[in-house]
User: Fold these one by one.
Assistant:
Number 1:
Amino acid sequence: MLDKQAIADAEAGAPAALKALLDAIPANVALIDASGDVLMVNNAWERFAAMNNGGQACQVGANYLDVCANLPPEDGAASCEANARLREILAGTADAATLAYPCHSPNKQRRFRA
């Protein structure tokens, strides 16, 4: 049985342990809360953002759902579908599912999976 101090120490280290776990994943990962606020991102996410002029758009503290809602019109229908689906999942009104959607850059056609 752990004493109170051991539990407190483990809880204090939890964010660092979670960050290390996320950084071990090669895919771009963002941890968001129920309102869509980005709580933590992994190194792959940070590298992708830096290479694609992502700035603070989808970094810790930003609202991922707001970013998705404001994507350019050429990505409109798919980004609206992705945004609506994410909102349903976060609200607990839909089961998790995989959704592919475009997120093109000026020089590269890309599709992401959420």
Number 2:
Amino acid sequence: MVDAIPSRSAANDDTLAGVLREILRKHSQGLDDMLPAIVEAHDREVNRVKVRPIISLVTTGKSVISRASIPSIPVLRLGGGGFFISFPLAAGDLGWIKASDRDISLFLQSLTESKPNTKRMHSFEDAVFIPDVIRAYDIASADAN
């Protein structure tokens, strides 16, 4: 039996297509996109939360490492036409963090068309929190349709 390098798929060895697949997979590991998260604190006045992603990292040595908290990201508020939905979030509430494609810090300051402030891409530093009860709810039979 051959010892495999734990962060590599042996199926990708010995072909150009396999090497390219492995390069893309390794690159993708450094990108943030969307993960479930738990609220640690919520400031409803400024519409920001401190959250902790609840999908751990796993090292090549198979050690499990908890992700660090994200200290302050905006909460999704659905709205338009002078109305919006705002949730009174509490510590322990669940939801999703969705990373933006580019640095959105200048946009959040001005709420106008902005250039990216840095070259940062696909980072939870530029995320939004989407509240979601996920499965902790019941739909009343009167509302089934």
Number 3:
Amino acid sequence: MRPDVRAWCGTGRADVKLKVDLHMHSCLSPCADDDMTPNNLVNMAWLNGLDAIAVSDHNTARNLPAVKAAADARGLLLLPALEVTTREEVHVLCYFQTVEQALAFDRWVYERLPDIQNVPRFFGRQVQMDAADEAVAEEKRLLISAIDAGVDEVARTAREMGGLPVPAHINRGANGLLTNLGFIPQSAGFCAVEVSRRSPVPAADLSAFTVLYASDAHRLEDIPEDGHLLEAESREAIAIFQSIAKRAKG
């Protein structure tokens, strides 16, 4: 039976503190370095003492199977994710409990991605890899394009498919929710938001949301040693879901 993410808001106790980075990119994102291979990014996160990571490539989940294999080998918890660019040019992180769920959502997203070809010399390569960091495909369609779905539809569909939508870097000048819309729409049903430490503190009242901080790493040197401390019931994806979804005001 598929869990209802909305039912998790305001639940759970905190027994475990996890050092997490829940927003980073692999070499399948055109704006990420080619060195951000599944094994490289997992090993850097492991060396830096992180307990859990989320790899959230732009509009795709197809490097997640390789990342999951690398993370399992290191005993590192992976929260599978995509960073979706909505019709409004807003970035929304969509977290899932399993790679299979993320890949199913990937197919929904790809159907709505415009047929605009990537220009690698300008945007960067989009390389899909296997568990041995061998290239198995190179995506031709530009993955950073806005899909044909708005913020509300992306959030609703992610939840219907077992996911947890969180608007990314809401205070950032480019692709931030507050910058592009000027407000956090109640209709999207967000329980949490991500705030960038590299941008001005948002003026909006965020007391009703769980606030996340992450590196948005596109290079190996961007992966932090400190991470974001997240309290959860256990070292499992479902517990991270519950921790993120728990509203500050139940």
Number 4:
Amino acid sequence: MAAAHEFALYVENIPGGTQWRITDSGIIHRMRTVLRARFDDTVVFFSAREQARAVVKAISDREILVAFAERAPVVPLMPLIDLVLPFLERTACEEAISAATVLGVRRIVFVRTQKSAPSPLSPSFKERLHRIMVAAAEQSKQYCLPEISEAATLATALPPDATAVFFHPTGSPLTAALPTLEKAARIAVIVGPAGDLTADERDALAHKGACFLRLTPTVLRSEAAIMVGIGVLRTALQPMPL
């Protein structure tokens, strides 16, 4: 009989073997009170390296027994997408990180620009961003958490092997660039901060070969541009099923 539900739960490590007797109170609490898992439900446990589908065989307030059905490595969505993100205000930054995780961004590079917000990447905020990424991955069933790093300038933030695109209302229609993007194994997406990049910063991106692409006839907030733009890219560029 097929399981009634399938949940996803991030854990630091997934043990080997065919069964896992869970006694960790934190995991038990999440499975019982957050996921509300029941006997015979399916749970996909995932870590930074592996995902494992398991079926709940016994559940109580002290331990949970699951049987593993299959395992697989965690792999990023293709094409690889990096996000070059100017520092945003805290709430906007959190929304941007959540959207990027849901859409399978492989790497997020924070960068300082003339109009970006002060750097929010304190150790406590990094930990909060990790929790946001985990929640977004569990909800979306996209199990590859983005890597987060910083770069000093826009130029150093762009991977040399990536096709760079900058979402901007003055750019060309995104559909015009799809034939080029379809050939790219890696794409670097750049969005501007509140107030946009300066003319000099935009010129620097153009000098680096970035393609300026328009998403809508209106001006979007940075976090909205991420959701709309990368969402369109994922829809248009998703690999054909074998």
